[in-house]
Amino acid sequence: MKETFYRFDTPAKICLLADIHDRDFSEITASLKVRKPDIIAVAGDILGNVKFDIPTPIMSRTHYALDFLTACAGIAPSFFSIGNHEWMLSQKDKDIIRSTGVTLLDNAWVRHESMVIGGLTSSGAVAYEKYRSGKSEEYPRWNYFNSPQRNEPEVGWLGEFERQEGFRLLLCHHPEYYPKYLRRRKLDLILSGHAHGGQIRIFGQGLFAPGQGVFPRYTSGIHGRMVISRGLANTARFVPRLFNRREIVYIIPK
Known about the structure:
The protein is of the alpha/beta class and 254 residues long. The protein has a single domain (2-253), classed as Purple Acid Phosphatase, chain A, domain 2, CATH 3.60.21. 20% of the residues lie in helices and 26% in strands. It has helices at residues 26-35, 65-75, 91-99, 123-132, 158-162, 178-182, and strands spanning 2-8, 14-17, 39-43, 78-81, 103-105, 108-112, 115-120, 167-172, 189-192, 201-202, 205-206, 208-209, 213-214, 221-223, 226-228, 247-253. The strands form 4 sheets. It has a 6-stranded mixed β-sheet with strand order 1-16-2-3-4-5, covered by helices on one side. The radius of gyration is 17 Å and the shape is globular.
């Protein structure tokens, strides 16, 4: 695992974590204790591959996810937004997440000192919630959870969010949402993951990312006001991470 440091005009030292996928987190907490961020932003995918037939609450059946969130909250104020691997979370699951001490941002925002911190929920989680509540008759199968032709994130609340005074920080698991939904909004910083750095990197270019396809643009680094983590684990069973170390990102005030 590597530590990556970016300078950005932010009022706080921020640690960005993404895509841990229910793996051991001892290296992560060791880094956090040394680097001492002011806040920790967990931008989705604390869970691994979740099957449709697993009953809820899912969080009570995880190996590391709850302890990971608890550890983060014990080090610094921590905020978590929902990624595509959290598509099946029930209200009970969300209560369990809140019990760890992290702030769950489910298409919502909160104030923290001079910052306003929001979390844009993955469209797949929104689609499944609509199906489960009876607001949609279509069962949102996994193969289009990241397809913009079938699902759209709920962005209506962002209008109020971007009108708030203070440094507007948005956790958004999906970097591919940036050009369509976020680029023109009055947001100071957007934190993302999901792309796993493009899985295989050659000459600084990732080869594939869900929602972007081959030779994706948004897999790592700074893109305008968006910072992307390469992620902390791998869920692709047959495609290893190559030339693409796991990454913990620190954003340091200028």
